[in-house]
Amino acid sequence: MEWNEGDLVWFDPGLGHPLPGEIQEVHRAAQVIIVQAVINGKPQTFTLSLGEGNLQARQDLGSTGVDDMTQLSDLHEASLLWNLRLRYDRGLIYTFAGSILIAVNPYKMFPDSYGLEVAKQYAGRPLGSLPPHLFAIGAAAHAALPSPQVVVISGESGAGKTESTKLVMQYLAAVVPGGGSASAVITEQILEAAPLLEAFGNARTARNDNSSRFGKYLEVYFKQGAIVGAKITQYLLEKSRIVTQAPGERNYHVFYELLGGLTEAERTKYGLLEAEKYFYLNQGGSDCAPGRVDWESLQGAMQVLGVSENEREGIVRVLASVLHLGNVYFHRRQLRHGQEGVEVGSDAEIKWTGHLLQISSEGLMRALTTRITEARAERLHTPLSIDQALDMRDAFAKALYSGLFSWLVSRINSIVHKGGTHDAQRISILDIFGFEDLAENSFEQLCINYANENLHLYFNKHVFKLEQAEYARERLEWTPLRGKTTSR
Ligand SMILES: Nc1ncnc2c1ncn2[C@@H]1O[C@H](COP(=O)(O)OP(=O)(O)OP(=O)(O)O)[C@@H](O)[C@H]1O
Q1: Does 99 share its domain with 230?
Q2: Residue 197 C-alpha to ligand 1 middle, in angstroms?
Q3: Any catalytic annotation for residue 208?
Q4: pLDDT for residue 399 is more than 90
């Protein structure tokens, strides 16, 4: 290829990845070209020998890039990223790749982009006829009913999945023709379920102040065009966080919201102190401020969802019990016959937990310090070591909290899913935790990454299969990904 001044190119000045540049000078006699690239906002020039630097022609994307990646003529990782970058710099955070929407997290709100008026513009418009937007995905899913639709939202932690899920839901709530007041109530309840689930299932992590620590599959049901119900399925709540947190991270938001919002009288009633005093809340060394939602708003969300006062009291009791349990400590104790066991350091926390859960404190103490084995008709109490007792305490706290979380999800479902939806149309939204590679990876990261791998595998198979079927239908030639022959 003959290069000329002003040609747009991809070149690699030895970085191991291509840069977008523009040829400034061509010195054919010396076989040298000078290319300029803008790096971190500063123009820099590179002198390359002709034939060096893996020069490739670069498409002119103008100042705002193309809004569908399929319009790119030079298609490789660098050109895809460059297009996203150009758009992002102009505040255009959404880009299509065919029927897939890529969203780049702006980390700042664009309130004008998500109003009712914008939602209405997208309603009923085919995908691609308006600029890329989450509402376009909502509109496409809605238009494709009655066949069941799933919006799969995928990306690493902090990418913006949860916010995107809420926006798709907001779109459906805003534009789906009203089905009377019953539909309006159920729609409000579905929207109110989001902050409630976030309080109990989200936490501050090193990557995201509001990271979802569970996977969520939300099915929204429609009849005669109106929303008639929803169902939430939750996966894999991260249990280790209830008892331990990595540096800079926190426990689930609800604990800090609870302690920041209780009145003095309520604190006394549940035997609670300020958040800094609880081992389960202060291991990450992060602050213990109440956080995103205040306790009062959370109570409001529970009210909208019909959670009774009695049930709310039960929720506080379980949360307070988890906190009390975390402060239980043990001493080594010499038993008879030279055996070693443990005893609880202070029984105040055990008494509070017993009182709040309405179980016997003595039984709880025994359960935390001994293991019961049954052999024939005999029950043997084997004393635990300190480490085993701590594990037992933590396991109990984890079971209590995850039981509460599962109960909450089924309680929400009992309100937003009244049954009778077997013949309803549905749009589902999958918001599942993204890939994680932390300084220390545990069993939870294995499960999260395994779930992601499978999702990607399914997604790739599905998308490529569909694409190949379309090629076959249109009798286009293509090279199957793993095959050597060109098919017709
Ligand atoms: N469309 C958006 N507009 C503005 N800010 C956004 C948008 N999407 C995400 N954010 C910001 O990024 C933060 C992280 O986003 P979000 O919690 O949705 O990520 P996530 O992919 O669900 O992460 P995780 O897997 O950790 O739950 C949000 O709290 C919000 O501040």
Answers
A1: yes
A2: 15
A3: yes
A4: yes
- Dihedral, CA of residue 14, residue 16, residue 17 and residue 21, to nearest 10: 0
- Considering the domain architecture, whether residues 18 and 101 belong to the same structural domain is answered as no
157-168 confidence digits (pLDDT tens)? 899 999 999 999
Q: Same domain for 162 and 190?
A: yes
Mean pLDDT of 309-318: 96
pTM: 0.89
Helix segments in 334-385, DSSP class H: 348-357, 361-369
pLDDT for 14-56, tens place per residue? 888 899 999 999 998 888 999 999 988 899 999 988 876 678 9
Q: How many domains does the chain have?
A: 2
Distance CA 190, CA 173 (A): 9
C-alpha span between 488 and 469 (Å, rounded)? 11
| Domain assignment of residue 279, given as a range | 69-292+423-473
Counting beta carbons within 10 angstroms of the beta carbon of residue 82, is it exposed (0 to 12), middle (13 to 18) or buried (19 or more)? buried
Ligand 1: which atom is nearest the Cα of residue 155?
21
List of residues 6+ apart from 300 with CB closer than 8 A: none
Q: What integer is the mean pLDDT of 434-461?
A: 87
- Residues shown for the chain: 488
Type and span of the H or E element at 49:
strand 42-49
Ligand 1 atom, smallest distance to 163 CA: 18
Q: What is the ipTM of this complex?
A: 0.98
Gap between the Cα atoms of 150 and 156, Å rounded:
19
